[in-house]
Amino acid sequence: MVSRVIPVDPFDLVIFGGTGDLARRKILPGLFRRFCAGQMPEGSQIIGAARSELDDAGYRDMVADAIAEFGGQQACEAGTLDAFLSSVHFVTTDAKGDGGWVELNSKMRDDKVRAFYFSVGPSLFGDLAERLHRFGLATPDSRIVVEKPFGHDLESAKALNATLAQHFDETQIYRIDHYLGKETVQNLMAVRFGNMLFEPLWNAQYVDHIQITVAETVGVGGRGGYYDKSGAMRDMVQNHLMQLLCLIAMEPPAKFEPDAVRDEKLKVIRALEPVDWHHIVRGQYGADDDGPGYRDDVEDPKSRTESFIAMKCHISNWRWAGTPFYLRTGKRLKARASEIAVVFKDAPHSIFGADAGRHRNVLAIRLQPNEGMTLDVTIKEPGPGGMRLLDVPLDMSFADALGPDAEEAPDAYERLIMDVIRGNQTLFMRGDEVEAAWAWTDPLIEGWQARNDVPKTYDPGSSGPEDALMLMHRDGRKWREVKA
Ligand code: NDP
Ligand code: BG6
Predict the structure, then answer these.
(1) I need a labelling partner for 299 at 20 to 30 A (CA). Which of 54, 78, 156, 370 fits?
(2) Which residues pair with 389 in a beta bridge?
(3) pLDDT tens for residues 282-294?
(4) Is 306 in the pocket of ligand 2 (CB under 6 A)?
(5) Which ligand is nearest to the CA of 104?
């Protein structure tokens, strides 16, 4: 298969927070990979902006180090790094002060696409929007890219939307959820809406339940200060898992266009029922030989923030009434594995009798790692001795099926930044989507806070607290194994 790289128009991209962790780990190496792939045209500029006193040469050294550390394998010709670095600049700029803005403005060119990436703490988003406007950098065609977290609750998300709306039109605002940039997440839409096979069965009549798991092996590491104020609900469920849920549950949009897709996602979020507290399990990882427990990681011996959450949700609409959606995500679990499993109902009648046991079709979409799909189908166990049944997976690893193209698929951030330059908002969250997600999330958080709920401790390297297993067992179901 031939990979197609369509270059974008030349651009000026300002990265506020250009010296920070996200810029170093993801944004800058990602841009370099797009440059190597021929997607970032010559004549484009990348301008780092932060308070640090750096000149272009100093910043280029930092960018080169970041690429060496986080860039991965580059299929780049000799001299490409130098060519890339020649398009990189730095302007010392204070988001809360007036320093640097005039110089930054002088670097912007009228005939190039303008994008401003807010890769700074959320408390600075409003300051940046206001100064971009006041110092004349914001043109009617410029775009801003806003990192997560987008608000802490409904009220703060509304306030942030209102602040941004004072200076930018909704069509200029790109709210990042990097899960939407993952290759396999987009594949969810291709699988559902590009095949005739699945869609007729994709409803409560045929689907018993759906499981969404995003398991991580890492703990909260050096991000304890942020994480302890968020927890798994705000950090992962309100955004990443919500987006996965939307893509798996939404009605087919009329077109693969930004508002058509986002309208359908919004309907799913608005149709989510409040979750009964008996259907929520929260956990905190304990300590083991490999590292401290959650409370030590966040340096709060009394913390009640969850590093794991599992819940059973319902979507009140014609398609899904009665089909539960089980969500779970957590840190320090046994494997890094993200998967969506659509578990179909039993055949209405078994002609093979009770001895044949219970067999179900399961379509499992592996998001990471080893992206691919398996479809469990029931077959006859080989050999003589009667009709015994067996479930076997039809297994398609995308890496096997697509060869080198699968390995070359751009990282989520690379793809999303290129979409910003192209002006395509399909894979970005609209303001009303984010607010609807908080409107569903807030009462759940308030509920466990009012009950003084204490998360259950779970063993690092496990699948989470026992209660999460019980959440399924009570319904006569079970979680799929967390495995890489
Ligand atoms: P860091 O703390 O590593 O970096 C913050 C950046 O902001 C630095 O470049 C800092 O540079 C700059 N900065 C701080 N204050 C100012 C100011 N007053 N004016 C201008 N620049 C300023 O944060 P991260 O890179 O980790 O995170 C950035 C954003 O991305 C946050 O919103 C975070 O929630 C989000 N995010 C990060 C992820 C990650 O993996 N790191 C993952 C998902 C989201 P200087 O001190 O020189 O001014
Ligand atoms: C981030 C969360 O948005 O996503 C992190 O803040 C989490 O806590 C990360 O670790 C997971 O992303 P990925 O791409 O590694 O699955």
Answers:
(1) 156
(2) 380
(3) 999 999 998 999 9
(4) no
(5) 1
Q: How far apart are CA 451 and CA 429, in angstroms?
A: 32
Residues 464-474 have pLDDT tens digits of 999 999 999 99
Ligand 2 contacts CB of residue 376 (under 6 A): no
- Candidates 2.120.10.30, 2.115.10.20, 3.60.70.12, 3.30.360.10; correct CATH number of 180-473? 3.30.360.10
* Closest atom of ligand 1 to CA, residue 176: 44
Angle, helices 28-36 vs 412-422, to 10°: value is: 70
Structure tokens at 112: 């190039």
The 8-class DSSP code of residue 370 comes to: S
Give the ligand at the shortest distance from the Cα of 91. 1
pLDDT value for 3: 57
Contact predicate 251/319, CB 8 Å = yes
Tokens encoding 138 = 């914001």
Average the pLDDT over each of 66-70, 203-207, 247-251, 353-357 and give the range with the smallest value: 353-357
Peptide bond into 258 cis (omega under 30): no
